[in-house]
Amino acid sequence: MMQYKLVFFIGFFLLLFLSPIIASSFSITQEVAVEEQQSPKKLVLAPTTTTVPLNTLEPTISKNVLLLFTHSHEAFIPIVKNISGEKAVYHSNSNITEFEEIIKMHFNVNSLNTKFLNFDTMDELKKTNRTFSEAYDVVRPHLSNEIQNNTYDLIIDLHRDSASKDISTLTYKDQTYGKLYFVVGEDNPNYLINQSYAKKISDKLNELVPGISRGVIGKKGEHVDGIYNQDLANNMVLIELGGIENTEEEINRTISVLAQAISIVLQDDSSVETN
Predict the structure, then answer these.
(1) Structure pTM?
(2) Position 167 pLDDT exceeds 90
């Protein structure tokens, strides 16, 4: 009898000693379970500066994009001022071409293989004593040669608009963006095809961030180029990105959204062709 009492006493003592540990372990297990239930699984998003999610569930096909800057020295006042202290809308060093790496990063993330036309139009104008209005003529043979020797799903001539900040800036969900719009040369006999490409991208941009695109504008007649080299390719668009007073951060955000919109449009076109 004494032996049973001793076993019982030892068991009771162990129970008292271990119960806080068991209770603590059970509590931790419950907390982990609750935390897992309360914390939804995070989507892996592209490293963009916007909150627009990418659809990473659908397979994407890499697309080839050619990008050029016909007015290569177009600049943004805040960026030039930060670098050199100058207040300039054209600059030989601090200009729209400085966004090449940002463009390439956002485009590549969205399955867009991006090549830049290696030609500084504005430098060439200066060297040959030609006027600003001749820029499209000067870049044309270089662009034509590139298109003839390589295949691209989209060709973009990227510019900076001259509009003031109140016109060129959008505030959406507590973030500011440089608005953009598309220019179509209606003196091009096949401009309706180029216009269709521009409209698709513009519409998709506004689906992602309402109001970020100011739409598609047609130009023709006197005092404008009227073609903008768009007769060289049906899938060529001219984009006016932001305005003279937009900041680097605003342009970065817009480039991020532009990359997503272009990728979606090109992927949709691929689906239609496949079907």
Answers:
(1) 0.79
(2) yes
